[in-house]
Design a protein that fits this description.
The protein has a domain of 26 residues. With 48 residues, it is mainly α. The longest helix is centred in the middle third of the chain and has 15 residues. The radius of gyration is 13 Å and the shape is globular.
Length: 48
Amino acid sequence: MREEIALCAPDGFFAKLICELDVRTRYCSGWWGSADECPSGRTADYGN
């Protein structure tokens, strides 16, 4: 996965972001939040 992410074209911020998300989606199914390469996403803490 890291090699594929490194190959994401640096053509622009959004193109790279979409490429990385596509790679992570393919590899992280079932691993979100369990592996460093598959973050679970930002959690909002509103003081609750």
